[in-house]
């Protein structure tokens, strides 16, 4: 397994790759969509008959594309920028997380603070989700702007050493910069799925009352491509990011606490009750949690292989138990 520093450097390279892949594939998607529409709206045998003029429908299509493409680009850039600086707050708000102070939960603050001192990390913001299940996640763009969220159930039901292992795991994601990588990935996927739904609705509304509205067809077809991209292509990019990040975070947590068996015990308990109701409609956030928080596989999960982003918990437990007794003193 790679060292922490190698993992951090690899995450930095993957972040750059993601930032390049999303706009590149976006440009190819838009070009393919417009090309297909030109073919559908035009006469494929017109050139053989010497007809070179654009039809009224093609002209309308050109005008629609000239408007849609730069608007989509601008929205994509705006979405990524806003998500980078405010995505963590939007995710925490959407999950119903409530920030706590030291006076609210002094024991949790002491655990987090001690672990941060051990790893040389700044103290993150700490949130609680009003859910009796057992789960947790970390988010933010860097260690200086990080947050960790714990469900009410995980705080109540885990032993202190088990909760310490879970918090160390989430802090490992902060230290390894997994949080920034996942923030960009979730933001990118969310943009394409949201934009796809909006484009289809706009296309359907603009096409009413017209038997042959190429502008409406442009938005509908572009929306379909966006949904296909968001549900299939973008998740494949995400799977290429790192399928080992949970193992890496588990190993880092075990090295920090010197108690891999406690984290293994916590994962065993979490596996029996990890569903978080607030995330049922936010499937793209599931990959950020310590364990899959969804009750069942929805469309996003089934099509994108979301559950594959989490290694089987039993394998993670086995790896931790194998570490027990082999840690340096």
Structure description:
By secondary structure, the protein is mainly alpha-helical. Helices cover 64% and strands 6% of the residues. The protein is built from eleven helices and four strands; from the N terminus they run ααβαβββαααααααα. The protein has a four-stranded mixed sheet with strand order 1-2-4-3, sandwiched between helices. Helix 2 packs across helix 6 (178-206) and helix 9 (260-271) runs antiparallel to helix 11. The protein starts with a helix and ends in a 6-residue tail after the last helix. Residues 300-307 have low confidence and may be disordered.
Biggest sheet: strands side by side, in what order?
A: 1-2-4-3
As a percent range, the share of helical residues equals 55-70%
Radius of gyration: 23 Å
Into which percentage range does the β-strand content fall?
Answer: 5-15%
Distance between the termini: 20 Å
Indicate the structural class: mainly alpha
Give me the strand/helix succession. HHEHEEEHHHHHHHH
Number of helices: 11
Unreliable stretches (pLDDT < 50, length at least 5) are 300-307
Given the C-alpha coordinates, what overall shape results?
elongated
Q: How many β-strands, per DSSP? A: 4
What composes the largest sheet? 4 strands, mixed
Overall mean confidence score, pLDDT:
78
Any descriptors?
mainly alpha, 4-stranded mixed sheet, 4 strands, 329 residues
What's the short version?
With 329 residues, this protein is mainly α. 64% of the residues lie in helices and 6% in strands.
């Amino acid at each position: 397994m790679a060292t922490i520093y190698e993992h951090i450097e690899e995450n930095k390279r993957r972040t750059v790759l993601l930032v390049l892949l999303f706009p590149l594939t976006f440009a190819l998607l838009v070009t393919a969509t417009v090309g297909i529409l030109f073919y559908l709206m035009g006469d494929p045998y017109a050139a053989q008959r010497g007809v070179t003029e654009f039809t009224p429908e093609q002209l309308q299509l050109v005008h629609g594309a000239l408007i849609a493409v730069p608007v989509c680009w601008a929205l994509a850039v705006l979405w990524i920028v806003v998500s980078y600086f405010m995505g963590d707050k939007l995710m925490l708000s959407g999950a119903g997380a409530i920030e706590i102070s030291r006076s609210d939960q002094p024991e949790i603050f002491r655990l987090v603070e001690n672990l941060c001192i051990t790893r040389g990390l700044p103290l993150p913001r700490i949130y609680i989700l009003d859910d009796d299940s057992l789960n947790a996640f970390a988010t933010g763009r860097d260690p200086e702007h990080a947050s960790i969220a714990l469900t009410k159930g995980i705080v109540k039901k885990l032993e202190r050493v088990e909760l310490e292992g879970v918090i160390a795991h989430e802090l490992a994601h902060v230290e390894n910069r997994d949080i920034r990588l996942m923030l960009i990935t979730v933001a990118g996927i969310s943009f394409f799925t949201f934009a796809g739904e909006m484009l289809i609705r706009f296309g359907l509304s603009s096409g009413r009352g017209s038997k042959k509205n190429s502008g409406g067809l442009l938005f509908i077809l572009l929306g379909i491509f966006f949904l296909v991209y968001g549900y299939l292509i973008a998740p494949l990019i995400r799977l290429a990011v790192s399928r080992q990040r949970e193992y890496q975070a588990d190993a880092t947590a075990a090295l920090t606490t010197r108690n891999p068996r406690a984290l293994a015990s916590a994962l065993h308990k979490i596996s029996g009750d990890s569903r978080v109701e607030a995330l049922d409609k936010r499937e793209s956030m599931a990959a950020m949690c310590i364990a899959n928080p969804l009750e069942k596989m929805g469309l996003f999960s089934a099509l994108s292989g979301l559950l594959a982003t989490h290694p089987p918990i039993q394998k993670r437990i086995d790896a931790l138990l194998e570490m027990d007794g082999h840690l340096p003193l």
